[in-house]
Amino acid sequence: MATAEHDVVIVGGGPGGYAAALYGAAAGLDVGLVERDKVGGTCLHRGCIPAKELLETAAVHRTVSRAKDFGIEAGQPSLDFSVTQDRKQKVVDQLFKGLAGLLKRRKVTIYDGQGSLASGHTVTVSNDGDETQVTGDAVILATGSLPRDLPGFDVDSELVVNSDQALFLDQLPSSAAVIGGGAIGCEFASMMADLGTQVTVLEALPKIIPGADDDVTKVVRKSFEKRGIDIRTGVEVKGHEPAKGGTSVQFGDGESIDVDLVVVSIGRRPLSEELGLDGTAVEVDDKGFVVVDELCRTGEDGVWAVGDVIATPQLAHVGFAEAIVAIKQVLGEDAVPVDHQRVPWCIYCHPEVAFAGMSEAAAKDAGMDVVTSTHRFAGNGRAMIVGETEGLVKVIAEKEGDGAGRILGVHMVGPWVTEQLGQGYLSVNWEATATEAAEYIQPHPTMSELFGESVMSLTGRGLHG
After folding, report:
1. Are residues 130 and 36 in the same domain?
2. Residues 181 and 133 in one domain
3. For the chain, what is the domain count?
4. What are the helix (H) ranges across 358-448?
5. pTM for this one?
6. What is the per-residue pLDDT across 79-130, written as a single tens digit (0 to 9) for each?
7. Helix-, strand-, coil-residue percentages of the chain, each rounded to 5
8. Which domain holds residue 422?
9. What is the CB neighbour count within 10 angstroms for residue 164?
10. I need a surface site. Which of 18, 393, 444, 452 has the fewest CB within 10 A?
11. Of these residues, 6, 45, 375, 444, which one is catalytic?
12. How far apart are alpha carbons 150 and 153 in whole angstroms?
């Protein structure tokens, strides 16, 4: 059996794993990275990147559809989804090539195969019957996640697909039921509806996009419904019965809907069952998550876990941040825990959603006395220019005397808000007060002015409302 040694051995080459490898290698560590598929993980190959590419196709379709509003006669657009899929794959392939090249330039050793951890920081890499034992002074577990299954909806890639498979459809269906109204479900619903599919969203919780402020989700729901998306919240799905080339989905109190395709998008589960862990003190909880402390340390000295395999927000950028925390400890540097209550969230449906920190309801549930300020894109010059005036910016701040103190949350919905969240995220995480944030100079005309208006209003001296 072949053997090898490194300063750090990383199991999993998704965002958490490859970020740890790149950050560690940049600091001079000798890094070994175990990956059973392709580096880049779910985000690059079956998640963030391909999903946003399809959403961009939907955005172009919307733009061409309303070109006449700008005096441009382009006609009603038609869709060749095979070209869309080809372009999506070109983007993915180019990013994959770039990532693989970067890892190579930083002299990260890639081991192809399934990695399992045993005592002594030994990772066994299995690949078609061949095994290699790789040991490291430190080990980072970053095996990621898989789509969650739903009882009564066996994935067959024809009538029922999960959120991974939905990214590789040969063509879009005429009708679809999207089960799950979270970030993933809303992105699929938005994209498919914009490209001509009749979509029904079925969500068990009382509202779509949990975590976002209620005022934000109301805007999304209104926009979805205006575009013909049927949203059913507070309903439980029971199963489905194939019929007439499609299937009938049962939900709620005896209700059903006939669709051509079911997209199961109820979140993702940790991929931990093949980690081995024999002879180690690494623990896995009853939901399959590797148990860690605030610094991503497992119960085994010198072993960390990051990304989707631990019970933190399943976001690529959170995996990046956790990877840095782990590597800093390997280097003997001071590491600051990730504040998972204040990480940035971005959802790329139309209209886009972005937020950081508490919603108004969450702050009140925590017993906090708050004040809020809300401004709408309907009065924003740049939003009018581009013809995208749906949405708002809402700032939630701690009440201080008769005014506003520390900013607790910034929640946005509307055009390009995923690109505007930066100053709101910084304000929340630096615990800036409304008065401090109001000193920022906002360029004009921009959509980001809406954040400035909202914090200025909290000081009692807003310019435009």
Report:
1. yes
2. no
3. 3
4. 360-365, 381-386, 421-429, 434-437
5. 0.96
6. 999 999 999 999 999 999 999 999 999 999 999 999 999 999 999 999 988 9
7. 35, 30, 40
8. 351-458
9. 17
10. 444
11. 444
12. 6
